[in-house]
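Whiteboard transcription, Tuesday session. T.W. wrote the structure tokens on the left side:
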């Protein structure tokens, strides 16, 4: 299978993989962030339908690339740090960093939130969200552990 990137969508990832693999998490974050930023500016995930003559498109793409790159780097650094619960801390740190970045480049049009694996907390609305599937799994395991039946 031959990999090609004719559209140039994953340029940061390709360059990092070739020249500086240690920056790969940041590069992946920047690529995804640039795509999400452009999507937020244009209301569609399809980059072929974006208005590239608009400054908003380019601004959101740049903001998304910065927010994604910083959060990707931070998440990668935390995940490989060796601290207890490093992966959960990486999810939380990267998600809140990306959320704050998105809040900034969209001029406050998005909420600030943090994911922590089984759920999330929205700082803007002060709501805690727990995945229904994860919640059911937790309760089922908890019942088995405490009472011995499921």
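and on the right, the sequence the group agreed on:
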């Amino acid at each position: 299978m031959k990999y090609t990137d004719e559209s140039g969508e994953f340029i940061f990832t390709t360059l990092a993989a070739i020249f500086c693999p240690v920056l790969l998490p940041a590069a992946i974050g920047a690529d995804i962030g640039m795509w999400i930023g452009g999507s937020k500016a244009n209301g569609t995930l399809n980059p072929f339908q974006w208005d590239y003559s608009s400054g908003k498109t380019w601004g959101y793409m740049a903001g998304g690339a910065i927010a994604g790159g910083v959060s990707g780097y931070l998440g990668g650094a935390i995940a490989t740090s060796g601290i207890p619960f490093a992966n959960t801390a990486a999810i939380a740190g990267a998600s809140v960093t990306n959320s704050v970045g998105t809040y900034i480049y969209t001029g406050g049009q998005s909420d600030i939130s943090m994911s922590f694996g089984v759920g999330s907390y929205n700082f803007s609305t002060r709501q805690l969200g727990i995945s229904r599937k994860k919640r059911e799994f937790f309760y089922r395991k908890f019942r088995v552990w405490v009472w011995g039946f499921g």
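Someone added at the bottom: The radius of gyration is 19 Å.
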